[in-house]
């Protein structure tokens, strides 16, 4: 067998530690399957004294990952630091410039600099693999980059953030508050170093940017994705969704439309009967619609050290085997610019929760605003206050929750109707709006 492939791992946190442990535990199997032994010879992190669960003293240590990328005698540089700039970006660039292959789980870096890095990799005959960057343990990058290359893809969508799905699932199943669920997701190693990236939707947008490029053969652009996170989702919405036959999931959706490629990240009402509604906890699901294969759905853990290490090690094994698939599925020069569909042109059904003053005529004002904007309502439900919240006697100034479900309409019409409702002074607070997705 050829000499062992030497690997340097930069970042020994949740993912980095699991990668080193996996490579040690399954060393013989990896060597048999890829035809070459793989050995970690160098590592980099900030704190040399921290317990990593393995003996760091036998490995070459670098406090500076860029120095490791520039100087270590390694064949593969594994970047598990995170961030779209600073040491992550500088070290990846330094490794590629030397012709050292790179494996990374860093979706922020790829979403922002993916095309430039692909060019750098091509110019230096190096691989740049990133299976773990999208949906953790799910092999969706390989699926799009290789297995579905014979299909024309019309849509790719899914639950792409384990932290958000974990939070929404626990809020729904156990009635636990948002902050407590987020703290637990952080403790379990699911969340980003800055968890606002998870809950505000940025992380899903980064992954969607990569999926869009792989699915449609376009340049990666993360700057124009419509994005809403889950921080405004309340238990009232979760309960109302349940009663109406929906569950709320944070989805990333990229699809071809008549006006261009629509890319959006937002909380979504999905029918309880859909496959995606049954994806719970840290699981992610990615669905792809191909013209010949139809729809395929991949489900698996989207975050966590071991699941993510599984994908990182698969990328390392591919390099050990000699696979040299183009970074974004085709030469970087062939990636196309694309026309983005504007969110105001989005078409779909909507859930709207209003806090309506109990005044005579308030309902009529709401119905008129909807009608003036050309929107048909599928249902209107005025929720009663629970017994302990109900006012002792009728009071027109105590707002009541009202839930509207619309038939298919456009984003621009909904925004127009909500502005009109707000201007009439019949609601006590900003309406809650959640899009409804048609799914199989
Ligand atoms: N956690 C997950 O489930 C998943 C994470 N990812 C991605 O993987 C990457 C790593 O995530 P994760 O393991 O969770 O992150 P952690 O925060 O757990 O680990 C980050 C590691 O990077 C090291 N580090 C940070 N800054 C520097 C620096 N300036 N120089 C050297 N080392 C540095 C830290 O060192 P020290 O330990 O000494 O502080 C730490 O070991 C990110 O890009 C993330 O988005 C992708 C999929 C899933
Ligand atoms: N923070 C990310 C990690 C996996 O990319 C998540 O929760 O999905």
UniProtKB/TrEMBL annotation:
The keyword Lipoprotein does not apply. The active site is at residue 207. It comes from the Bacteria. L-homoserine binds at residue 192. It is an enzyme of class 1 (oxidoreductase). NADPH binds at residue 107. InterPro entries: ACT-like_dom_sf (IPR045865), ACT_dom (IPR002912), Asp/hSer_DH_NAD-bd (IPR005106), HDH (IPR016204), HDH_cat (IPR001342), HDH_CS (IPR019811), NAD(P)-bd_dom_sf (IPR036291). Its EC number is 1.1.1.3. SUPFAM superfamilies: ACT-like, Glyceraldehyde-3-phosphate dehydrogenase-like, C-terminal domain, NAD(P)-binding Rossmann-fold domains. Residues 351-435 form the ACT domain. Pathway: Amino-acid biosynthesis; L-methionine biosynthesis via de novo pathway; L-homoserine from L-aspartate: step 3/3; Amino-acid biosynthesis; L-threonine biosynthesis; L-threonine from L-aspartate: step 3/5. GO terms for biological process: methionine biosynthetic process; threonine biosynthetic process. GO terms for molecular function: homoserine dehydrogenase activity; NADP binding. Pfam families: ACT, Homoserine_dh, NAD_binding_3. Keywords: Amino-acid biosynthesis, Methionine biosynthesis, NADP, Oxidoreductase, Threonine biosynthesis. NCBIfam families: PRK06349.1. Belongs to the homoserine dehydrogenase family. This is Homoserine dehydrogenase. It comes from Roseibium marinum.
């Amino acid at each position: 067998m050829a000499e062992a492939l030497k690997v340097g791992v930069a970042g020994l946190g949740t993912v980095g530690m699991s990668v080193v442990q996996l490579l040690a535990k399954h060393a013989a199997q990896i060597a048999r399957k890829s035809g070459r032994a793989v050995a970690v010879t160098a590592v980099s992190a900030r704190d040399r004294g921290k317990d990593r669960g393995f003996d760091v003293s036998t490995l070459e240590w670098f406090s500076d990952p860029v120095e490791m990328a520039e100087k270590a005698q390694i064949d593969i540089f594994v970047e598990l630091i995170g961030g779209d700039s600073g040491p992550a970006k500088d070290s990846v660039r330094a490794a590629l410039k030397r012709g050292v292959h790179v494996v990374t789980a860093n979706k922020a870096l790829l979403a922002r600099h993916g095309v430039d890095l692909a060019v750098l990799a091509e110019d230096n005959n190096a691989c740049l693999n990133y299976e773990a960057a999208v949906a953790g343990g799910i092999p969706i990058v390989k699926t799009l980059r290789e297995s579905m290359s014979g299909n024309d893809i019309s849509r790719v969508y899914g639950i792409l953030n384990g932290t958000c799905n974990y939070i929404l699932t626990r809020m729904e199943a156990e009635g636990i508050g948002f902050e407590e669920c987020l703290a637990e997701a952080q403790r379990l190693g699911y969340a980003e170093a800055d968890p606002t990236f998870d809950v505000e939707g940025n992380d899903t947008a980064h992954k969607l940017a990569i999926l869009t490029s792989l699915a449609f053969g376009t340049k990666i652009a993360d700057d124009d994705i419509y994005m809403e996170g889950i921080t405004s989702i309340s238990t009232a919405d979760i309960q109302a969704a349940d009663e109406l036959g929906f569950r709320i999931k944070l989805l990333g959706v990229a699809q071809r439309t008549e006006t261009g490629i629509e890319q959006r990240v937002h909380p979504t009402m999905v029918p309880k009967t859909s496959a995606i509604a049954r994806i719970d906890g840290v699981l992610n699901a990615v669905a792809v619609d191909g013209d010949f294969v139809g729809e395929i759905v991949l489900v698996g853990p989207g975050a966590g050290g071991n699941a993510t290490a599984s994908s990182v090690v698969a990328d390392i094994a591919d390099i050990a085997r000699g696979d040299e698939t183009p970074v974004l599925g085709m030469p970087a020069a062939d990636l196309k610019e694309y026309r983005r569909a504007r969110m105001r042109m989005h078409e779909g059904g909507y859930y709207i929760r209003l806090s309506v003053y109990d005044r005579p005529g308030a309902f009529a004002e709401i119905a008129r605003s909807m009608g003036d904007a050309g929107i048909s309502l599928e249902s209107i439900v005025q929720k009663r206050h629970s017994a302990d919240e109900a006012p002792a006697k009728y009071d027109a100034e105590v707002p009541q929750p009202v839930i509207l479900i619309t038939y298919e309409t456009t984003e621009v019409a909904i925004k127009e109707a909500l502005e009109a409702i707000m201007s009439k002074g019949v609601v006590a607070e900003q309406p809650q709006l959640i899009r409804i997705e048609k799914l199989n």
